[in-house]
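Hi D.,

Good news: the full-assembly prediction came through. Inputs first.
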Amino acid sequence: MPAKRLRSQDWFDSLEYYSFARRAYLRSEGITREAFHGKPVIGICNSWSELNHCNLHLRTVAEAVKRGVWQAGGVPFEFPTISLGEVFMRPTTMLFRNLMAMDVEESIRANPLDGVVLLCGCDKTTPAQLMGAASVDLPSIFVTAGPMLSGHYKGQDIGSGTDMRKIFDLYRAGEMSDEELCEFEGCAARSHGHCMVMGTASTMTSIAEALGMTLPGCASIPAPDSRRLAIAELSGRRIVEMIDQELRPSQIMTREAFENAITVEMALGGSTNAVVHLIAIAGRLGLTLTLEDFHRISKRTPYIANVRPSGQYLMEDFFYAGGLPVVMRELLPLLHTSCRTVNGGTIQKNYESAECWNRDVIRTLREPLNAEGGTLILYGNLAPDGAVIKHTAASPDLLKHRGPAYVFDDHHHMLEDLMRDDLPVDENTVLVLKNGGPHGGPGFPEWGHIPMPKKLLQRGIKDMVRISDARMSGTSFGTVVLHIAPESAIGGPLAAVRTGDEIVLDAENRRIDVALPPEEIESRLRSFVRPKPHYGRGYGKLFLEHVTQANLGCDFDFLQALE
Ligand code: FES
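Then the structure:
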């Protein structure tokens, strides 16, 4: 029994009536006083849901965590939070990331817990849990869901999202039948687990590990692999020790740890969504990350993980090549190696002996896939507060481009227009989508990967420059400028763009501009009328009143750490 008084003892071990009542009511679960008296109480914060296929196996993972907790002398209590199923929720899971973070934070704080094991996987569940755990700052360890097995169709490997989009473009172009599409549907998602490209889920679970919040090696283990349950059991054992050592998220997720996480994100060619999430998580700890931090680290970090959508392979191949530990080992010269992690070891100690089994999947720093990281930060008269482009997943010949804008004000109408045979666009056109930001979407949806116009697909054209104030799925690809801030719906300069204006993308010089004189932009913005808010009540109203812009992480202003 630990010598010091545990937080949970305030609930169970005092002379007040409710202490007695809590013990009595726990008997309704068949739990006797001896089972928990004086023992660390571990919450298992579970984002399992049948409406979130990526996290569907987390009840089984929770059982493995419980085994570990019992073995180490703790008492586990599994509890649910809301879950955010990426492809099911409307208008977008991003609208609810902060709600889930609040749920996680308050569920932990309000209950008799000494430490927490957090189970996450699908895109927003990982950042939401990191944000919540950071704000409470009780000892915490993450067990991620793991990627699903590789998809296979007609002898080809199929990556979630990335290849599904390519296949659907073939279907839209009339090159695939209904029967083939139906057959493909059965081949893409073969197991539980999150998307198995380096999309947002794989990026954010890798970032959780790079921050030091999982046991080493956790992020890359495929969801159905028995080693996932083994690492869950180990995590259950470890959280009990962490309570004794009083090892808290604020001691692990330091400024240096965030710089490590950005370095890893760049080396992975990870999702652009990580930019928004990392800024928000850091804000919960009173740390300020800026887009310039991402730019500075991107410039010095080679891209080495050959995984789709930027690369060639899938997460299962990445795991067999050694997974994230090999990337971390390669990056040691660029990392803050003395950062502590949840296992009590440093980044140096945890990863220095990782071995690579396939150099085509994970490259060395000397022979990278690209000399710089996967995400570029852009500025310009269209994005005074910044924008992002995943240049490793873009067409190199389009990274310097000038072309006439074709503007969509509304996502829904855009999808209809893109099917028109008479849409007045060609491969030089720059497609512009407004009203896709935090206020405009609402909720900052993944609309930024504007589908290719059908008439261009039929001519075999697969990419063109597309710009918006929306996000895009981490599984997406193409020459797509995103996160333009400030967003158009609150009167950012994107609101001034009209069809026919010349748009200039110059990725090398980090610029995204409209070729208009400043006075013309100002004149147009003076007549800008802000759209009617999407919500007049409820959570949506709270969101619109308090969400920050993309460059500030889109957290609620009142959830950031107090000075
Ligand atoms: Fe959950 Fe892709 S749908 S990670």
